[in-house]
Each structure stands twice: as C-alpha cells, then as structure tokens.
Specification:
Layout lengths: L1 E4 L3 H12 L4 E5 L14 E2 L13 H8 L6 E3 L1 H17 L2 H29 L5 E2 L3 E5 L5 H13 L4 E5 H7 L9 E5 L3 E3 L2 H14 L3 E4 L6 E3 L2 E6 L2 E5 L1 E4 L5 H7 L6 E11 L11 E3 L4 E5 L4 E4 L2 E3 L9 H13 L11 E8 L5 E4 L6 E5 L5 H18 L16
The structure holds flavin-adenine dinucleotide.
The site of flavin-adenine dinucleotide has 40 residues, from helix 1, strand 2, strand 15, strand 20 and helix 10.
Length: 410
C-alpha cells in the first residue's frame, strides 16, 4: 500500500493518479478532506502564470512595500526576522536570468493543468463545478500595462488565447461592474472552480469508490521501518511501502523530521464571502490588480480573496488587507452582506526558488514529496499528481520534473 499524507487537493489528486497507475492507496489526514488551504482559495485554474511571481528588484518598490500600507502585501514585523534568510534567497532567485530558467521548467505543467482537471472532473462527476471561461485581470493604471504585456506575450508564444480589453470592452464583457477600469486582460484558456471544497470532496469520493481508504491520523507519527513506513492511526498501526508528503503548508515539519531542510515560507491569504444580489452575478472571476484581490463568483456567494501576507503559519490572524480592500470591492460590485462570521485564513506554502517540490526524497527510497505549490496548488494539483505517480510507478515522467526534486536544496 502507498500512503498519501494530507487530503487537500494535492494529496487527493495524488491518491487518484496512483490508483490509476494500479497502486493500492490510502489517504491520511488529521482533519478530514480538503479543510486546509484547499478549502478557501479563489478557485482559479490559472493556465496563465508562465512566469513565476518574483520578489521586486527595484529598491523604490521594495521600500514602498516595506511601509506595510499596500493591500497587495503585508508582513508581521517580528516574523520577518526568522524569514529574512528566505526572503534574501527569494530576492536572489528573482534575477531575470533565473526567472527565465524557472519559467521554462514550470510552464509545461501550467499548459497541461486544465486538461488534467477536465479529465479528473469528468471522471468524478464534478464537471458542473468547473467553469471553463477564463478570468479577467483589471487595472486602472495605464503604466502597468507594459509589465503585464510581458506575461501576455509569453502566453501568446505558448498559443494561449488572450484578449487585451479597453475600458469600454471591459464594461461590455462584465456590465455589472460599477467602476470603470482602464485596461484588462481576458485569459480565455483558464478556468475556475465554483466550490473548491466540494471539488476536492468529489475527487475524494471517486478515490473511495475506486477502492481507496481514508485514515484519520497524524503524519508526525510516521516511522521508517524495514521496507517501508509505519504509522499509528485511528485504526491501529498501519504499514505502507511508500509514503507521499502532500501536507501543503505543514509539509516542512515532516521533512525536517527526516533530515530535509526545505526553505518553505507562508504566503498567507484571507477570504470572506458575500451574498449574491441580482447585480452581483459577474460571469467570471475578476482580479483587481491594483489592490491585489480576487472577486470570484462561487456557487452560493461572491468570494473575496486577498494577496500575500508574510507571517508564520501559526501567527495571529491580521486581516488588514481584507479590511482595506472590502470597501473597494463593494465599490466595484453590488454585493450582499458578509456571509461568514469569521474571516478565513490560509497559508500558501512557497519555496524561495518559486518552484514546487515534487519527486523522490533524496535520502529515502520510499519517501516522496508533492508540496509547495504556492499560489497555484489548485491549478497544479492534478498535473503534479500525475507526474509524481508516473515517477513512482514507471520511473519516468512525460514532462521533465527533475528540477523540482528536493535535492536542489542539499
Ligand atoms: C487566499 C488564497 C487564495 C488562493 N487562490 C488560489 C487559486 O485561485 N488557484 C490556485 O491554483 N491556488 C490558489 N491558492 C493556493 C492553493 O489553495 C494551495 O496551493 C493548495 O490548496 C495547496 O493544497 P495542498 O493539498 O498542498 O494543501 P492543503 O489544502 O493545506 O492540504 C494539506 C492537508 O494536510 C493535512 N495535515 C496537515 N498537517 C497534518 C498532520 N500532521 N497529519 C495529517 N494531516 C495533516 C491538513 O489537514 C490538510 O488537509 C490560494 C491560496 C490562498 C491562501
């Protein structure tokens, strides 16, 4: 049996693909299905981000973000001390030459991401949760179009369908928007999920239907034994030949325990949902690029998600970004009242070199990694799961994933 640690979208997808490649698989989670970061994301399947999200290189920009006033970026001052080496590496890896290299490694995964989602969604009967009509990136700042065009050009070179819209075209495409934007990008080839929690659950149901097992337990109890792994769980001691770490932001703890120091940090983000009114039914998710938030039309509500907050995973929630952008969101769209009592907080697990960790654990033959998908865990879950399953079962993959091996940090 193979044991997948973590039942978020990445773990569940990994379990499904391992089953597809003929393995007997169990999923383990301490907290049920899809209740971690996978619960609260914006639902975007971004077949767009062919360039990694870099650390600013310009001193003026860095100093501006350091004021902690921009809603696109927030940090906890005391956590920064611990985070400083990670941030230095992030800055260093964000040099243009390296960014090009990373983009070449990661782009094939993005380009195949939606196809894999469609295959899984169809099998799991989750088609109606997948809306394949893209999303809109919107801005009021003409000067920012130049930088955005770099991403557009790369996407067009990869044959992605992209439209640049002016203010009138945006208003025509989403007539319910109350504010007039200056320019926008419609990413036609992307998609979105209208209920991320239910989507993970649907994929999980398929896994169970195909003979998979779900175990409640703590991955921190994993022990290496002869020919595999043992773990104490709700059903007693279990034994697995292979263990796969897919614990999202909690993956670092297990890795450290087995001697791997992965430079992981947490790009935290918040969400709140608002009631639908007749005038809030936008057709596709929109990103207010100037303020770094997404308004995503979900199944039963409009979900607002925020950009990046650098803080330890367990530091106190400080939803300042959400409070800052909430009135802006209301001025863009006629939304109803808040639907949740509490503001949701999640942590995007990110490496300092902007690439996920996928592959065999360098010092253990039967330990495998699939985590650190940062901003794109939902997008990349099925394709990274498929590639890891190929590596584990066939020893080779249809896309080269050697750059994502944890050995790059040793
Ligand atoms: C605000 C926000 C918006 C986002 N928007 C998008 C988006 O639009 N598109 C996109 O592609 N990505 C988005 N993301 C990122 C995406 O949500 C994550 O990358 C993804 O959900 C990570 O999935 P995962 O399965 O790796 O981790 P998780 O969903 O966190 O799953 C990890 C699992 O491990 C379990 N676990 C933890 N510790 C233990 C333990 N000790 N023992 C057993 N189990 C344990 C947890 O209970 C959890 O179920 C967003 C993230 C945030 C925060």
């Amino acid at each position: 049996m193979d044991l997948v640690l973590g039942a978020g979208i990445v773990g569940v997808s990994t379990a499904l693909y391992l089953q597809q490649y003929g393995r007997n698989v169990a999923l383990l989670d301490i907290n049920g299905i899809g209740k971690g970061t996978s619960f609260g994301n914006a639902g975007l399947i971004e077949k767009t981000d062919l360039l990694p999200r870099v650390f600013p290189r310009n001193l003026g920009e860095i100093l501006y973000y350091a004021t902690n006033k921009d809603p696109r970026f927030h940090y906890h001052l005391f956590d920064l001390i611990k985070l400083a080496p990670w941030l230095m590496q992030y800055w260093h890896k964000s040099n243009p030459k390296n960014v090009e290299k990373i983009a070449n490694y990661i782009s094939p995964l993005f380009l195949q991401s939606l196809d894999e989602h469609k295959i899984l969604a169809k099998k799991a009967g989750a088609n109606r949760l997948l809306r394949a009509n893209g999303w809109l990136h919107l801005s009021r700042k003409p000067q920012d179009l130049i930088a955005a065009m770099k991403i557009v050009e790369r996407a067009r070179m990869a044959n992605l369908s992209v439209s640049i819209l002016n203010g009138e075209q945006i208003a025509k495409s989403e007539p319910l928007l109350k504010e007039k934007f200056t320019w926008g990008i419609h990413w036609h080839d992307s998609a979105s999920i209208i209920d991320p929690a239910q989507y993970t659950k649907k994929l999980y149901d398929l896994f169970i239907k195909q003979g998979g097992a779900m175990i409640e337990g703590d991955a921190r109890n994993l022990l290496e034994v002869k020919n595999g792994w043992a773990l104490k769980s709700n059903i007693g001691n279990i034994f697995a030949k292979n263990a796969i770490v897919a614990l999202g932001p909690h993956s670092g703890i297990i890795c450290k325990y087995f001697g791997y120091k992965i430079p992981l940090a947490f790009k935290r983000g918040y969400h709140m949902e608002y009631g639908y009114k007749e005038k809030s039914k936008i057709k596709i998710p929109i990103i207010d690029a100037d303020n770094g938030f997404v308004l995503a039309p979900m199944k039963n509500a409009i979900r607002l998600t925020t950009a990046v907050e650098f803080a330890n995973i367990d530091s106190k929630p400080t939803p300042k970004q959400l409070l800052k952008v909430e009135p802006i969101a209301h001025s863009i769209l006629d939304m109803g009242e808040r639907k949740q009592k509490n503001i949701w907080l999640g942590a995007r697990p990110a490496t300092s070199d902007m690439m996920p960790v996928i592959g065999r654990a360098p010092k253990h033959n039967r330990l495998w990694f699939n985590f650190a998908h940062a901003h794109h865990g939902l997008t990349l879950a099925p394709i990274s799961a498929k590639l890891l399953a190929q590596l584990m079962v066939e020893g080779k993959t249809e896309i080269d994933i050697s750059a994502f091996c944890a050995s790059r940090f040793s």
